[in-house]
Amino acid sequence: MKVSTAEFVKSAFKESDWPLDLKPEIAFLGRSNVGKSSLINSLLSVRGLARTSSTPGRTQSLNFFSINDRFRFVDLPGFGYARVPQDIRSTWGEMVTSYLAKRRQLVLSIQIVDSRHEPTKQDLQLHEWLEHSNKPRLLVATKSDKLSNNELRKNLEHIGSVLEDDSILAYSAKTGRGRDELWRAIKSAIS
């Protein structure tokens, strides 16, 4: 897909802050430090639009980005390890669950896992919740450039068996691996 415009719209901490129009939305979910913001930036071929950090947990709100003024990407707060106060972290689950359950504009949830690591209990819970709620979803394994092809194949098979999902897309923000396939899934979801 040709991206002519990609811009930050707003950060939302509660439902009343969500954009009101009916443009389709693609949500990016995963644990802290899994590469959500890097994936978004690489998909859009824009540096720094979605804020990246070496410190996990920097995304603390729902961040809405307008793409070609036709649809939105939504960067959700990461779960798991994050150096933020417990009272802030405890609101994330509620904020994310509310968005995923209520948002009519949500046409695809992209669950991101790290291709190098065992899925966590939280990865499994999120995957089961998305599956149980019949939400359109896609599983993407980031940081695939950090593994040999053999290691990547083994890890994807293992992740697939743990999450009981054999349709995992390997992605690399560095090399662009999986970019075209991910755009095809997004285009299909918004059309």
The level 1 CATH classification is: Alpha Beta
- Reported by name, the CATH topology is Rossmann fold
In CATH terms, what is the architecture? 3-Layer(aba) Sandwich
The CATH H-level homologous superfamily: P-loop containing nucleotide triphosphate hydrolases
The biggest beta sheet, please? 7 strands, mixed
Number of helices, counting only DSSP H or I runs of 4 residues or more: 5
* Rg of Cα set: 15 Å
End-to-end separation in angstroms reads 13 Å
Tally of structural domains:
1
The total beta strand count reads 7
In sequence order, what are the helices and strands, one letter per element?
A: EEHEEHEHEHEH
Task: Describe the protein's architecture and organization.
- There is one protein chain.
- The chain has a 7-stranded mixed β-sheet, with helices on both faces.
- It has helices at residues 36-44, 86-102, 121-132, 149-163, 179-190; strands spanning 6-12, 25-30, 62-67, 71-75, 106-114, 137-142, 168-170.
- It starts with 5 loop residues before the first strand and ends with a helix.
- The protein has one domain (6-190): Rossmann fold, CATH 3.40.50.
- The chain is built from 5 helices and 7 strands; from the N terminus they run E-E-H-E-E-H-E-H-E-H-E-H.
- By secondary structure, it is α/β, with parallel strands linked by helices.
- Helix 4 (149-163) links the parallel strand 6 and strand 7 (168-170).
- Mean pLDDT is 86; it is low at 53-58 and 81-89.
- The radius of gyration is 15 Å and the shape is globular.
